Amino acid sequence: MxxxxxxxxxxxxxxxxxxxxRDALGRSAASVFRLEGEGLPALYxxxxxxxxxxxxxxxxxxxxxxxxxxxxxxxxxxxESDGERNWLLIGALPGADLVSASALTPMARxxxxxxxxxxxxxxxxxxxxxxxRLENRLPTAKARMEAGIVDEEDFDAARLGKNAAALFDDLxxxxxxxxxxxxxxxDACLPNFVASNGKFSGYIDCSRLGVADRHQDIxxxxxxxxxxxGEALIRPFLERYGLTAPDATKLHYFQLxxxxx
Length: 261
Fold this sequence. Notes:
By secondary structure, the protein is an alpha+beta fold. The chain is about 35% helix and about 20% strand.
């Protein structure tokens, strides 16, 4: 496709021989392209507008850290920016994401998600340099709202018709009094976890990884499971993860917080 003509020279040379195919899955603000070529390894290229709310630099840093921590994720191959756009080139993991992995039963996919989150949450928080506790995330949510980039038309059904300012007031009023801190993925939805041959093969879309309450991940995972497979599989997910009685108020809270990202 002609998109390759707009690449920085260094990336254009590196990607000679590749075909570009737009990847529409997911909710990232970046444009994502899968790259394939004869005899060449599959890659992904992400492109975003440069600016204060860009996430590709965050993703590159987190993928590098996660790889060093010994957990599976894409290799960071190259980063470029021209001041107007940022590019991130990463390797492709084997297999398919947990929405698309139709060779596996929904139960198997839910169990893989639970195990992957458990492994991530077992990492020592002192080793993680990315701090996403509420004292840091709430100011970011407010800044995104004030910049006009919170999509009120994309709110969950329960909150459609409300405005971001009212929801932010709820975030401040309902803020939990304590945080059960772990290393969280930050966007723990089924499309962001990949499986191959029946086994987990890695974490993707990791730009929001950081130390936060474990309910940050559990809340979004439960919502994603209900949306894709039905609410009946939430209980098996929680049992496999080892949290049979999650804090319902925190589940609601972190789903509310996610409306701003």
